[in-house]
Each structure stands twice: as structure tokens, then as C-alpha cells.
Write a structure and sequence with these properties.
Layout: H1 2-27, H2 29-63, H3 65-76, H4 78-83, H5 87-97, H6 99-139, H7 145-186, E1 209-216, E2 227-234
Antiparallel strand pairs: 1-2
Helix pairs in contact: 1-2, 1-7, 2-6, 2-7, 3-5
């Protein structure tokens, strides 16, 4: 599936480039040569802009995961938090968990802003070069405004398509990996056959449950021990409930 998607993108990109370059060369070859020469720079600018915005959103979401998990645990175990009077401690832990995402967001904002500014500046400079050369060619009477608009629209749209296709390769690879892992799970066969009547069968099953020396604490509060050396013995035929 990954190979098929990449082949589709390659065919789309190559066909778009060949058709656009051929048509633009037929309409106004002098202008087309200059625009084709600077088009790799424009494609890189489009690609960088798309990737920077996408990565910024993903990293910001990832940085907030820890504080989100802590908030969910605190709300889920609200009674436990109140019982141990841990409200102030939870707020301090939440504030500490947000320090790293805050610094990461500021750093990513600087990098993204500088990257977007550079890509926009280079893209504008490329178009400025194209229009300067267009003015020179039109002044000398090589083509009319109609040819300019046609050539410009063809090559500009092609550059945008190429940049978007290039930025999709990462998403396509991630999607293929996810789909592959799903098929691995679906195609996994267990050695235990629940419908098989053969095999070892217990003659007598008792519902006796015994727990010895159990230690337990929540991941968010490892210092607060909920169970310390806890043991319980539930005999068969009896019901026991743990309330807390």
C-alpha cells in the first residue's frame, strides 16, 4: 500500500510537470524558461511552509499530553485527591508539567516564524524576478498579456501541486504503517482454540481468591501509597467488596 501510494504521487508529479512545462513552452518559451528555472525555489518555499505549520501543530499537541493526562487522572480520582487534601499538590504538579510545553511552544514559534518569513521572502523574490522579466519581454513585444496570464497560472499551480504532493509523503508513510499494524493484528492466530473440545480440562474449579502483600500507588502520585502490604483472602461462595 505504501509503495502504491508513492507511485501514485510520483506519477501525478511527473505528469503535472511534463504537461505544464510543455504547454508553457508552447505559449511563451522565453518566460517559461525563467519561471521553470526558479520554480524549484518556489516549490521548496511552498513545501517548507506546509511542513512547518503541520509540525508546529503536532509538537504542540504532543507537548500538552503530559499535562492532559495529569488533569484526567486528577478528575477521575477526585475523591482520592480530596481525601488526601492533595489539591495544592495537584496544582503544583500541573504547573510544573506545563513548563516544558510552554518553553517548547515559544521555541517552536520562533523557528516557525523565521522559517515562514524566509520562505515567504524567497517566494516573493522569485515572483518579483519573473514579473521584472515579463515587463522586459512585453516592452520588447515578444508576447501579450494573455500569454503572460496563461503561462503564470499554469506554472504557479503546478508548483503548488508539487509541493503539496511532496508534503503528503510523510502522512502517507504514517498511514501505511498504521494500516499495516492493523492487518498484523487481524492476521494473528492464537494457539488457543476456544471451540476445541480436546486439551486439558480441570475437573474441579474453585472460586477461592487470595492476595498477599500487595503494594499499590497511582502513577501520578508515587509517594502516596494506597495499599502497603495489603492481603485479602476471599473464600469460595463469599462476596467481598473493596470501597475507597
Amino acid at each position: 500500500m505504501n509503495s502504491l501510494g508513492l507511485k501514485t504521487l510520483v506519477v501525478q508529479t511527473i505528469s503535472a510537470k511534463v504537461v505544464a512545462f510543455t504547454i508553457s513552452m508552447v505559449i511563451a518559451w522565453r518566460l517559461a524558461i525563467v519561471m521553470i528555472a526558479v520554480q524549484p525555489l518556489i516549490v521548496m518555499c511552498f513545501y517548507a511552509r506546509h511542513v512547518l505549520l503541520q509540525n508546529m501543530s503536532q509538537k504542540a499537541t504532543k507537548a500538552e499530553d503530559e499535562s492532559s493526562k495529569l488533569t484526567v487522572e486528577a478528575i477521575t480520582n477526585l475523591r482520592t485527591v480530596i481525601a488526601f487534601s492533595s489539591q495544592e499538590r495537584i496544582l503544583q504538579m500541573l504547573e510544573k508539567a506545563q513548563e516544558s510545553p510552554r518553553h517548547e511552544s515559544i521555541r517552536q514559534s520562533w523557528f516557525t516564524g523565521i522559517g515562514l518569513a524566509l520562505s515567504q521572502s524567497l517566494s516573493t523574490a522569485s515572483w518579483a524576478l519573473d514579473f521584472w522579466y515579463v515587463r522586459k519581454l512585453m516592452a520588447e513585444g515578444y508576447f501579450l498579456a494573455k500569454a503572460l496570464i496563461e503561462t503564470y497560472m499554469i506554472l504557479a499551480s503546478t508548483g503548488h501541486v508539487i509541493a503539496i504532493s511532496g508534503s503528503m509523503t510523510t502522512d502517507l508513510a504514517k498511514g501505511s504503517e498504521s494500516v499495516g499494524s492493523v492487518f498484523v493484528v487481524l492476521e494473528c492466530y492464537t494457539r488457543i482454540e476456544p471451540k476445541d473440545s480436546e486439551g486439558y480440562q480441570l475437573e474441579k474449579i474453585t472460586s477461592h481468591v487470595e492476595i498477599r502483600d500487595m503494594y499499590f500507588s497511582y502513577p501520578a502520585w508515587p509517594d502516596v501509597i494506597i495499599f502497603q502490604g495489603f492481603s485479602i483472602n476471599v473464600e469460595a461462595g463469599k462476596s467481598t467488596a473493596l470501597v475507597g
